[in-house]
Specification:
The complex is a heterodimer of chains A (241) and B (288). Chain A contains eight helices and nine strands. Chain A has 241 residues and is an alpha/beta fold. Chain A folds into two domains: 149 residues, P-loop containing nucleotide triphosphate hydrolases (Rossmann fold, 3-Layer(aba) Sandwich), CATH 3.40.50; 78 residues, no CATH class. In chain A, the strands form two sheets. Chain A has a six-stranded mixed sheet, sandwiched between helices. A three-stranded antiparallel sheet of chain A has the order 2-1-4, covered by helices on one side. The longest helix of chain A has 16 residues. Chain A is globular, with a radius of gyration of 18 Å. The mean pLDDT of chain A is 90. Chain B has 288 residues and is mainly alpha-helical. Chain B has one domain. A two-stranded antiparallel ribbon of chain B has the order 1-2. The model of chain B has no long low-confidence stretch (mean pLDDT 89). The chains are: A alpha/beta (241), B mainly alpha (288). Chains A and B meet through helix 2 of A and helix 7 of B.
C-alpha cells in the first residue's frame, strides 16, 4: 500500500491553477524527490497535505504503515511531520522547548502533567543534530543553518511516518548539507516515508529512491529516480536539455 | 495608615486581575479587550447574589466562578475563531455587548443606578469588616492566583500557550488542539478576573456599570504591558505602578474632575512611553 495518495487535487490562487487535478502515489519507506520549476505546485501540495491550505477540490489520504508500531493515536501525534521553505520556529522560545513541544503527549488532559523524561530525550536529539550547546538559547538567536537543523531536529523528534521536507538544503554550506543528508537517510532507515522538495538534482540523485516531477500543477513524470530523470519530457521541461 | 491599607487592597485586587490577563495577553498573545466585562460579571455575581438572594460571600463567589466560567467558554470559543487585530476587535465588541447588558437589564442590575449595600465577606461568623482583615483576604487571593498560574505555566500547557503566541499554525500541525487550549486559557483568565471583580464589589460596597466599560479594559492592558508581558512578577509590578502613579496627583491639590482626566492621560502616556522605549514592559520577556 502507498503511504500517500492524492486524487484529483486542485488548488487555485487568484485565477492561477497551482494544482490541476493532481493524482499521485507515494510509496511507503521510500524517499521520493518532488521536483519541478518554481510555481509548479510542490509547496502547495505539501501545504495541503499538512493542513496549512485547503484544496479547492479532490482529496488525499495518508495510509499508516502497519509494519511500524508508532502508537500515533495514543499520544495524538499527527500522521505527518514537516519542515518549511522559510523556516518556522518558535523564535522566542528556547531551542530545547522547540523540541519538547514535538515530544509532548498531545492529549489535552495530559498537558497538565509534567513528564521529566522529555528534557533528556530532547537533549539527545539536540546532540544528534549538533545543537546541544545551544539548548537554552532562544531559537531566534540561531544562525540560518542552525535554524534549518533545528527544524530537522523537530522532524526527528516526531513519531510521524510521513515526513515532508521543503527545501531543507537551501542556503546551507557543504558541511551542513552532509549533516542533513545523514539525517534524511536515518529517517529512511527507521522506515519513514520522506517526500523531499529540492532543486539540486545531484542531491535528488544521491538521496531519492523515486522522483515525481511537477509542471504547472500536473504530474509530468513519476518513477524510479534515474529512469525518471532521463525521460526526454523531464529533461526538456525541467532540466533544460 | 488606613490610606496605605486602602492602596494595598486595591493593588491586591488588581494584581489578581492583571495576573489573569497576562495569561491570555502576555503568554498566549491574544489582545483581549473584554476583561472589564468579566471583572463586571464577578462584581455583579456578588452584588446580585447577596442583595437579591442573600447568599453568603463564598457561595456567591462559587456561583460567580461558575457563571463567569460558562460565559467565558462561550465567548472563548467565539473569540478563538479570530486572530490578532480581528481578535482584539471581536473582544471589544463582546465587551460592549456585556456592558450594555449591565446598563440595560435594569431588573437584575438596576442599570445606571447601580447596586448599593454589598456586604463584606463573612466566614464562620467572622466578618472581614476592618480594612486590615480585608487586605489579608485580598492578599491571600492574590497569592493563590500567583501560585496557581506559576505552576500552570511550568506544565506543557504553559509551553503551548507561548507557542500559540509564536505560531499557532505550526503548533496545530504538531497535533495539538489549539482552539481548546486557547479557550481554556481564556476561561482561566476570565475566572481570575471575575474573582477580582467580586473582591472589588465587596470592598467598595457599591457597583455600577461605569466601573466595567471599555476604558477599564484599556487600563488593564496598560497594567500588563507596563509591568511586563509574559512575566507574572511584571503583572504585580505594573499594578503597583499604575495604582500608585495617579495617587501622586492627590498631593498636587488639583480639582477632582481635572485629576480624574489627568489620570487617564497618565495611563495613556505611560503606555506610549513603554511601547516606544521598552515594548516588553519592565519585566517582560516578549515584545508586543
Amino acid at each position: 500500500m502507498n503511504a500517500l495518495t492524492t486524487t484529483k487535487l486542485t488548488k487555485h490562487f487568484a485565477g492561477t491553477k497551482a494544482l490541476d487535478e493532481l493524482c499521485l502515489e507515494f510509496e511507503h519507506r521510500k524517499i521520493t524527490g518532488l521536483i519541478g520549476p518554481n510555481g509548479s505546485g510542490k509547496t502547495t501540495l505539501i501545504n495541503i497535505i499538512s493542513n496549512f491550505l485547503q484544496a479547492d477540490s479532490g482529496e488525499y489520504t495518508i495510509h499508516e504503515d502497519a509494519k511500524l508500531n508508532s502508537d500515533l493515536s495514543q499520544t495524538n501525534q499527527p500522521k505527518f511531520s514537516r519542515t518549511f521553505q522559510n523556516v518556522r520556529l518558535f523564535d522566542q522560545m528556547t531551542v530545547l522547548d522547540n523540541i519538547i513541544l514535538v515530544l509532548n503527549d498531545k492529549n489535552f488532559t495530559n498537558l497538565f502533567v509534567n513528564d521529566n523524561r522529555l528534557e533528556k530525550k530532547a537533549t539527545n536529539i539536540l546532540k544528534k543534530i549538533g545543537l546541544r550547546e545551544s539548548a537554552h538559547k532562544l531559537a531566534g538567536e540561531l544562525s540560518y543553518g542552525q535554524r534549518k537543523l533545528l527544524e530537522i531536529g523537530r522532524v526527528l523528534a516526531s513519531n510521524s511516518q510521513l515526513i515532508l521536507l521543503d527545501e531543507p538544503f537551501a542556503g546551507l554550506f557543504p558541511q551542513m548539507i552532509e549533516t542533513v543528508k545523514k539525517h534524511i537517510n536515518t529517517l529512511k532507515l527507521h522506515g519513514k516515508t520522506v517526500i523531499l522538495i529540492e532543486h539540486n538534482i545531484q542531491l535528488i540523485r544521491e538521496l531519492c529512491d523515486r522522483v515525481t516531477v511537477l509542471n504547472c500543477g500536473k504530474s509530468l513524470a513519476s518513477g524510479e529516480t534515474t529512469t525518471t530523470l532521463s525521460q526526454p519530457e523531464v529533461l526538456g521541461a525541467y532540466l533544460g536539455k | 495608615m488606613e490610606y496605605l491599607i486602602h492602596i494595598a487592597i486595591i493593588i491586591s485586587i488588581y494584581s489578581i486581575l492583571s495576573l489573569g490577563l497576562n495569561l491570555i495577553l502576555g503568554y498566549t498573545g491574544q489582545l483581549s479587550l473584554t476583561h472589564a466585562a468579566f471583572f463586571g460579571i464577578g462584581a455583579y455575581a456578588i452584588a446580585i447574589g447577596e442583595t437579591k438572594f442573600h447568599l453568603n460571600f463564598f457561595l456567591a463567589l462559587l456561583i460567580g466562578i461558575v457563571v463567569a466560567g460558562l460565559l467565558a467558554i462561550i465567548i472563548g470559543i467565539f473569540l478563538g475563531r479570530f486572530r490578532r487585530d480581528i481578535y482584539a476587535l471581536a473582544s471589544l465588541g463582546t465587551n460592549v455587548i456585556l456592558f450594555s447588558i449591565f446598563l440595560n437589564w435594569t431588573n437584575l442590575t438596576r442599570g445606571p443606578l447601580g447596586i448599593p449595600g454589598i456586604r463584606r465577606p463573612e466566614i464562620f461568623g467572622f466578618i472581614f469588616q476592618s480594612n486590615f482583615s480585608f487586605l489579608l483576604l485580598c492578599a491571600f487571593f492574590s497569592y493563590l492566583t500567583y501560585t496557581i498560574l506559576h505552576r500552570l505555566l511550568k506544565t506543557p500547557f504553559g509551553l503551548t500557550l507561548k507557542a500559540i503566541r509564536e505560531d499557532e499554525d505550526v503548533l496545530s500541525s504538531f497535533g495539538y488542539k489549539v482552539k481548546t487550549i486557547k479557550t481554556t486559557a481564556f476561561v482561566i483568565s476570565a475566572i481570575f478576573t471575575a474573582i477580582a471583580g467580586r473582591l472589588l464589589a465587596s470592598y467598595i460596597t457599591f457597583i455600577d456599570p461605569s466601573t466595567f466599560d471599555f476604558n477599564e479594559s484599556i487600563y488593564f492592558l496598560s497594567v500588563v504591558i507596563i509591568g511586563g508581558l509574559a512575566d507574572l512578577r511584571g503583572s504585580i509590578l505594573g499594578t503597583i505602578i499604575l495604582v500608585i502613579l495617579p495617587e501622586a496627583l492627590r498631593f498636587l491639590g488639583l480639582p477632582s474632575d481635572l485629576a480624574a482626566n489627568l489620570r487617564q492621560i497618565l495611563y495613556g502616556l505611560a503606555l506610549i512611553m513603554m511601547i516606544l522605549f521598552r515594548p516588553q514592559g519592565f519585566l517582560g520577556k516578549y515584545k508586543m
